[in-house]
Specification:
- The chain folds into 2 domains: 3-46 and 300-328, no CATH class; 48-297, YVTN repeat-like/Quinoprotein amine dehydrogenase (Methylamine Dehydrogenase, Chain H), CATH 2.130.10.10.
- 12% of the residues lie in helices and 43% in strands.
- It is built from 3 helices and 24 strands.
- The longest helix is centred in the C-terminal third of the chain and has 18 residues, at 300-317.
């Protein structure tokens, strides 16, 4: 066994290392050093997300969004309706009916008491207090799959089966800009908290970050093995959340594109996901007809174990260095986390 191979076998332990032990990296190839560094930086994060509540629905969950106060969620489903729930009592508070197809996307207007729903090739604007329909936007050559409101409420972002995301004027309904680059349907869209970046998820298994002002592609987020059905930003804009047909949700660093965390708990494809306004809760919805609520915790042991798994996936399962075999890796389970 070569010296390089022996060093690669130690990669699963990188989640536990301290800065002073990084000097040995000088003898490793540049690409390996880059991945080791990213793994180490991720391992310094001290929080995790754990399931604390769930809602069992009667229909497949297609979309979800938190209210500005973080106490309720709006859920779009296969029954052609949108439902408002209290996340703590799990009680249904409102039901918006009138769509002609599955409600694939929902969004709260952050500066008013209105919500948007996407169904077919039409976007509906509703008054939440009265449950009355206020406005309809129609556009795109194929169905609208997702919709998001800009932070200032002045524009709306939509995704479509025609592989394109579009930016609209919320008042007039006029088309402002198109974002093209995905190789398959754009199934989800989101605005960054400052409104300067758009995030799109596609059936091509990737998520993309875009400059809203120019329409230019900034970064591609990879890692899911199946189509990405939903995307969202954390409230601070530093983390991207994705949900996929592969039954997992993933967290990515928006500045580097680095994979941070995998959420496992659903028994079917994840069609939607969202952060609460304070970033402490994540909601995920699935074909298993459940909404799972994940609450932020500060369990560093759990986080380190997650990073260890990611190291194995990166270097062995994903085949970056196929000469390494999983059965050759050794892990000292008694090692204490610094």
């Amino acid at each position: 066994m070569s010296t390089l191979t022996k060093k690669l076998l130690l990669l699963p332990l990188l989640a536990y290392i301290i800065p002073g032990s990084l000097s040995c990296m000088e003898s490793l190839p540049q690409d390996i050093r880059r991945y080791i560094t990213s793994l180490y930086l991720d391992a310094t994060l001290s929080y995790d997300f754990e399931i604390f509540n769930s809602i069992q629905a009667q229909w497949i969950i297609r979309s979800v969004a938190f209210s500005p106060d973080g106490r309720t969620v709006l859920i779009g489903s296969n029954d052609k309706s949108a439902h408002l729930y209290n996340i703590y009592t799990k009680k249904q508070l409102k039901k918006l009916t009138g769509a002609f197809d599955f409600v694939l996307s929902v969004a709260f207007n952050p500066v008013g008491k209105t919500v948007l729903t996407g169904s077919g090739n039409t976007i509906h604007l509703w008054d939440l207090s009265t449950e009355k329909l206020l406005q309809k936007f129609t556009g795109g050559t194929k169905d609208v799959t997702s919709v998001a409101c800009s932070p200032d409420g002045k524009t709306a972002l939509t995704g479509s089966f025609d592989r394109t995301a579009r930016l609209w004027d919320s008042s007039s309904g006029n088309l402002l800009k198109e974002f093209k680059g995905h190789t398959d349907s754009v199934f989800s869209v989101a605005f960054s908290p400052d409104g300067k970046t758009a995030l799109t998820g596609s059936l091509d298994t990737t998520a993309c970050l875009w400059d809203v002002s120019t329409g230019h592609l900034q970064r591609v987020l990879k890692g899911h093995t199946d189509p990405v059905f939903f995307v969202a930003f954390s409230p601070d804009g530093k983390t991207a959340l994705t949900g996929s047909l592969d039954t997992t949700a993933r967290l990515f660093d928006t500045a580097t594109g680095t994979f941070l965390k995998e959420l496992i708990g659903h028994e079917g494809p994840i069609f939607c996901a969202a952060f609460s306004p304070d970033g402490d809760i994540i909601a995920t919805g699935s074909s298993d007809k459940k909404i799972l609520f994940w609450k932020r915790s500060f369990n560093s042991v759990t986080w380190a174990e997650t990073r260890q798994k990611s190291a194995l996936e990166l270097f062995i399962t994903m085949g970056l260095y196929k000469t390494i075999h999983a059965e050759d890796c050794f892990i000292n389970k008694d090692k204490k986390i610094p």
